[in-house]
């Protein structure tokens, strides 16, 4: 029987804590979303001062990255390169903004991390820091 890795609450909190700390260090604010392999939220945190619109965007970035098993930036680039409308994918929650990243464990996408409220590049930078913290926590480091 094949076992599938699952993101737990403690791992999600380790991720969120790392991102919160980095955003505080930078003097920035954002919305942080961690989702399971189905794209459903495990944790959503809107930091003080983060735009209301970033709540939906962060959760949709996490949903997209998990479901499509790629970064949201990659999906957006594919859409732009092909001149396709995102509606082509058939799910209104899919987004192509940078900042949603899949979490891969043992070669399997176990979930995703997304950040919204900064530039796409900054969203991705802090999401990547969160993923690294999540994986360290998972390994017991």
Helix and strand arrangement:
Layout: H1 9-26, E1 31-36, E2 41-46, H2 53-68, H3 72-82, E3 100-105, E4 108-116, H4 120-138
Antiparallel strand pairs: 1-2, 1-4, 3-4
Helix pairs in contact: 1-4
Care to describe what's here?
There is one protein chain. This protein has 141 residues and is an alpha+beta fold. It has one domain (9-138): 2-Layer Sandwich (Beta-Lactamase). It has four helices and four strands; from the N terminus they run H-E-E-H-H-E-E-H. The protein has helices spanning 9-26, 53-68, 72-82, 120-138, and strands spanning 31-36, 41-46, 100-105, 108-116. A four-stranded antiparallel sheet has the order 2-1-4-3, with helices on both faces. Helix 1 crosses helix 4 (120-138). The chain starts with 8 loop residues before the first helix and ends with a helix. The mean pLDDT is 94.
First and last CA, distance? 28 Å
Low-confidence stretches: none
State mean pLDDT (0 to 100 scale). 94
CATH A-level architecture: 2-Layer Sandwich
Which H/E pattern describes the elements?
Answer: HEEHHEEH
What's the main sheet like? 4 strands, antiparallel
CATH fold naming:
Beta-Lactamase
State the fourth-level CATH superfamily.
Answer: Haem-degrading domain
How would you sum up this structure in a few lines?
The chain has helices at residues 9-26, 53-68, 72-82, 120-138; strands at residues 31-36, 41-46, 100-105, 108-116. It has 141 residues and is α+β, with helices and mostly antiparallel strands.
């Amino acid at each position: 029987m094949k076992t599938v890795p699952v993101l737990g609450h403690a791992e999600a909190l380790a991720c969120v804590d790392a991102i919160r700390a980095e955003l505080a260090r930078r003097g920035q604010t954002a919305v942080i979303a961690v989702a399971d392999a189905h794209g459903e939220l495990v944790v959503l945190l809107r930091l003080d001062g983060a735009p209301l619109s970033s709540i939906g965007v962060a959760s949709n970035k996490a949903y997209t990255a998990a479901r499509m098993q790629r970064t949201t930036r990659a999906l957006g680039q594919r859409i732009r390169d092909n001149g396709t409308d995102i509606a082509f994918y058939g799910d209104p929650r899919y987004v192509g903004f940078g900042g949603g990243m899949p979490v891969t464990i043992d070669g399997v996408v176990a979930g995703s991390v997304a950040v919204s409220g900064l530039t796409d590049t900054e969203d991705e930078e802090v999401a990547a820091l969160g993923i690294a913290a999540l994986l360290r926590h998972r390994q017991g480091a």
